[in-house]
Design a protein that fits this description.
The complex is a heterotrimer of chains A (258), B (288) and C (321).
Chain A (H helix, E strand, L loop, with lengths): L1 E12 L2 E12 L3 E5 L6 H8 L7 E8 L2 E4 L5 H7 L1 E3 L12 H10 L6 H5 L3 H20 L15 H14 L4 E5 L7 H18 L2 E5 L3 H7 L2 E6 L2 E6 L1 H6 L1 H8 L4
Parallel strand pairs in A: 3-8, 3-9, 6-7, 7-8
Antiparallel strand pairs in A: 1-2, 1-4, 4-5, 9-10
Helix pairs in contact in A: 3-5, 3-6
Chain B lengths: L1 H27 L6 H18 L4 H24 L7 H23 L4 E2 L8 E4 L2 E4 H23 L1 H11 L1 H6 L4 H27 L1 E2 L5 H14 L4 H20 L6 H15 L14
Helix pairs in contact in B: 1-5, 1-8, 1-9, 1-10, 2-3, 2-8, 2-9, 3-8, 5-6, 5-8, 6-8, 9-10, 9-11, 10-11
Chain C lengths: L1 H26 L5 H26 L7 H18 L3 H26 L4 H21 L18 H19 L2 H11 L1 H6 L4 H27 L9 H14 L4 H18 L6 H15 L12 H17 L1
The chains are: A alpha/beta (258), B mainly alpha (288), C mainly alpha (321).
Chain lengths: 258, 288, 321
């Protein structure tokens, strides 16, 4: 089943077309990678899909519990509430808050609280708060972070900061998770851990994952399907084996004349 | 037309003051609240050297600029340098403290009485058709414009100017290529404070009265001017200063003098809503 | 659940005991009229500064217009109590003042809170000045002369009660889901937005709550000092409130309390120095900032829960030994 359907998506900044006529789709519970040389427009595409920038042309539609929804002109927080969560290339945690608070904030949107019950500390406030806390701790447990809950996010080691970003994104209960270069700055060992982690997420949470990554070993290892972007245009789509043999892709990465 | 002349001379004073705000902000991102009080010090310096030492106008102007430059450098060294790596708001509170100190220190030492500035120059009125313009107004306009051009030349053409621009864009990178950050910042304070000193002497001559609290309101207006034009940009400060000067005299001429400050703030807010980084400022969107 | 009740009851006990102790001291003559005067002013400053700390310290928005909202509360309440000079009038006046102030904050906040950092500061300062200039030119507010003979309704118990109420509202707001959402805006707006947090809404809400508490502070000020004029609510007043927030520690409500008390006492002591008073005050301010840039308490917060935890831990250790 197609979960996210992107049709003829284009974004131009002044005269520069950063993303041009991109048509792609993501299926339910699929693990897709988006690759391409530096400056190919991958992050711009992510930003278009998550509402950070508004597309010039084209449509983005997502299958939700309330039927098909067009995400084009939604604000980022609305897109997130519709079921699309992301991590960032340059880590963007809530640095001066605890690990637990980072996760709890991501759960806020789906767990509204009456202003008065929190001001007057009605019993319902404590019940809900305790339940949320429990849920957040359970989630952190899955990722072996239960011992860190009271630490400030900024005091975590780099690899764990990346992991916390993923946990935080999952706490919004997304249908689709976007990972923007999750292996950036990691050593081979950490990358191997991450590979396992991404698989685990796809299987245990039954969600769709779209991954931007430069680390080819990671991409070829986990992706079921790969899209290749060059100069803002899709130049190839296929399984890892197909992509590895695709001549245009090889040319784009290695350069050279045709 | 008459209002245009008045507005321009008032505006050039605001512009001179706004330059100091904008340069300091550009380089260390500090709203230097004490800047308006440097201008007050300049006026008082002029008052004393003219009365006691019988300096003529030009000598008073030059010595006030020198004096204020020195004061600016000392303030930066004592009060702002220790806070360079602290939260910006802490530095802002320190600047407010310095401002209080200058105002109240002067009031304590020299009493808070209003005194009249010595008239070193005979006022002459020139009439061009229906417009009358005094020699002092011409002087203010001319001196301000010359100083602004001079400043622009220093920033654009000299090595120190280049260093200033480099530090304001990226202090860490500037340090890596061998720029002495401390000296550059001191120089910026010296330049900005000298401009304020010049403005102080000229306003003394123009309005003919000075007091220890005279820097407060023009200081805030000049800061508004700097923000209006696009803070951190020297031409922006000049434009902002003239816009506010003209707006104020216009409101006064239309008989809304009670609302002239409100008009200034209203224009400020409207411009910021349309252009969030001021008239000449470019809003840099954070990269995701 | 029982624990929560215990914490809340402890807080209630602290508030009641504080009130009783201060009254006893007054009865015993240790706190005189002058001392009570200082306490009332400190109390009003606490109300003003906790509201501003919510805006600056927790939502991370730099407002320099607090005095404008204070002025709205002061004038609305003064006008109401001048015709209904009863405690009931005072209550209505405070509620009405807070409501008007919140409404103005809402109207002003939605467009201006898009600005960042110092641009927002200068825009909010402009708003406050416009409010002041309007008060200066209206007939009902009696122009530059202001209002006088306002009934003395903000007595010490009223102020003490209102300090408790506003602090309770703000602290409970901060320590809730809403408060976490507000803090996420301060921490990283882009990340918050992509986690489904409607950042504009939370920024505006924090600003509105801050404005409403400023109005309550203003209302108490008017009904304690008994005369108000537009010049009382200038930029300098906004800056004085800002100083309390920064000096105490941005993001620490406990710090705001400490700073308001310290500054209040400092002011009381410096009364004896005459004209030298402001010189010493400004020197103290500069030195405090140079040597303690994160404020007196940083982001440290007094918490009954931690106190209990520490207590139980230390008794356990004793038992082990």
């Amino acid at each position: 089943m197609t979960l996210l359907d992107i049709k003829e998506l284009t974004k131009s900044f002044g005269g520069l077309t950063a993303v041009s006529n991109v048509t792609m789709h993501l299926n339910d519970n699929e693990l897709v990678a988006l690759i391409g040389p530096n400056g190919a427009g991958k992050t711009t595409l992510f930003n278009l899909l998550t509402g950070v920038i508004v597309p010039s042309e084209g449509t983005i539609a997502m299958q939700t519990d309330n039927g098909l929804q067009v995400l084009n002109k939604m604000k980022p927080y609305k897109v997130a509430q519709t079921g699309l969560a992301r991590t960032f290339q340059n880590i963007r945690l809530f640095k001066d808050l605890s690990v637990l608070d980072n996760v709890l904030i991501a759960m806020t949107a789906k767990n509204k609280e009456g202003f008065f019950s929190s001001i007057f500390r009605l019993p319902s406030f404590y019940h809900k708060e305790a339940a949320l806390r429990q849920e957040a701790i359970e989630l952190l447990k899955i990722f072996d972070m239960q011992d860190q809950i009271d630490n400030l996010a900024k005091n975590l080691p780099y690899g764990e900061q990346r992991r916390l970003e993923i946990v935080r994104a999952l706490a919004t209960k997304p249908k689709i998770l976007f990972l923007d270069e999750p292996a950036a700055g990691m050593n081979p060992e950490e990358t191997a851990d991450l590979t396992r982690l991404i698989r685990k997420i796809q299987q245990e949470f039954h969600i769709t994952v779209l991954l931007i990554e430069h680390d080819m070993s990671l991409v070829m290892n986990v992706a079921e399907r790969i899209y290749v972007l060059e100069y803002g245009q899709l130049i190839a789509e296929g399984t890892p084996t197909q992509i590895q043999q695709n001549e245009r892709v090889i040319k784009a990465y290695l350069g050279g004349e045709s | 037309m008459q209002q245009l002349v008045n507005g321009l001379s008032l505006g050039s004073i605001y512009a001179l003051l706004a330059l100091g705000y904008t340069m300091v902000y550009g380089i260390i991102k500090l709203i230097n609240f004490a800047h308006g009080d440097i201008y007050m010090l300049g006026a008082f310096w002029g008052y004393y050297v003219i009365n006691q030492l019988h300096f003529n106008f030009w000598l008073a102007l030059a010595s006030a600029m020198l004096f204020c430059a020195l004061v600016g450098v000392v303030i930066e060294y004592l009060a702002y340098r220790p806070l360079r790596n602290s939260p910006r708001i802490a530095a802002l509170i320190t600047a407010i403290g310095v401002s209080f100190l200058l105002e109240n220190g002067m009031a304590y030492m020299f009493s808070s009485n209003v005194r009249s500035f010595p008239q070193v120059m005979k006022v002459k009125q020139y009439h061009l058709g229906s417009v009358s313009i005094s020699n002092i107004q011409i002087l203010i306009l001319a001196v301000s414009i010359i100083l602004m051009i001079l400043l622009q030349l220093i920033v654009r053409k000299t090595k120190m100017g280049k260093a200033m621009r480099a530090v304001s864009v990226d202090p860490a990178a500037a340090q890596l290529i061998g720029i002495n950050i401390d000296r550059t910042i001191s120089f910026t304070f010296a330049l900005g404070s000298a401009m304020a000193g010049a403005a102080g002497v000229m306003i003394g001559l123009y309005y003919n009265s000075i007091d220890p609290l005279m820097g407060m309101t023009p200081g805030i207006k000049a800061f508004v001017a700097a923000v209006l034009g696009g803070i951190g940009l020297i031409p922006g400060a000049a434009i902002g200063g003239f816009v506010i000067g003209l707006l104020e005299t216009l409101m006064q001429a239309l008989g809304f003098s009670a609302f002239k400050d409100a008009a200034v703030y209203a224009v400020l807010i409207i411009i910021l809503l349309i252009r969030p980084a001021g008239i000449l400022g470019k809003k840099i969107k954070e990269k995701v | 659940m029982k624990k929560n009740l215990k914490y809340n009851l402890t807080w209630l006990a602290i508030m009641v005991v504080g009130y009783v102790v201060i009254n006893l001291l007054e009865f015993a003559g240790i706190i005189d009229q002058f001392g009570e005067n200082t306490m009332v002013l400190i109390g009003i400053n606490i109300i003003l500064a906790t509201g501003l700390n919510l805006i600056i310290g927790f939502s991370g928005q730099f407002s320099l217009g607090h005095a404008g909202f204070m002025a709205i509360g002061a004038y609305v309440c003064a006008l109401i109590t001048s015709s209904v000079a009863t405690p009931m009038g005072m209550a209505i006046g405070m509620i009405a003042g807070a409501a008007v102030s919140a409404l103005v904050a809402l109207i002003v906040g939605i467009p201006t809170l898009r600005l960042d950092g110092d641009y927002l500061a200068i825009a909010t300062m402009g708003v406050a000045e416009i409010i002041r200039i309007i008060l200066n030119n209206l007939k009902i507010t009696n122009g530059p002369a202001g209002l006088y003979n306002i009934p003395l309704l903000a007595t010490w118990p009223v102020v003490y009660f209102m300090v408790c109420v506003t602090t309770l509202i703000i602290v409970n707001f901060i320590h809730s889901r809403d408060g976490r959402a507000v803090m996420s805006v301060r921490e990283n707006e882009i990340a918050a937005e992509s986690m489904g947090v409607n950042t504009t809404k939370w920024k505006v809400l924090a600003f509105v709550i801050g404005a409403a508490t400023a109005a309550i502070g203003g209302a108490l000020h008017a009904n304690y000092i008994q005369t108000i004029a537009p010049t009382d609510f200038g930029i300098m007043e906004s800056i004085n409130i800002l100083i309390i927030v920064v000096l105490g520690g941005i993001g620490s409500i406990t710090g705001t309390f400490v700073a308001a008390v310290v500054l209040g006492l400092l002011d009381m002591i410096l009364q004896n120095f005459g004209t030298l008073r402001m010189v010493l005050y400004s020197l103290a301010l500069i030195l405090l900032m140079v040597f303690k840039p994160s404020g007196l308490l940083g982001t440290w917060e007094f918490s009954v829960r931690n106190l209990f935890n520490r207590f139980t831990r230390s008794t356990k250790q004793k038992g082990d030994a």
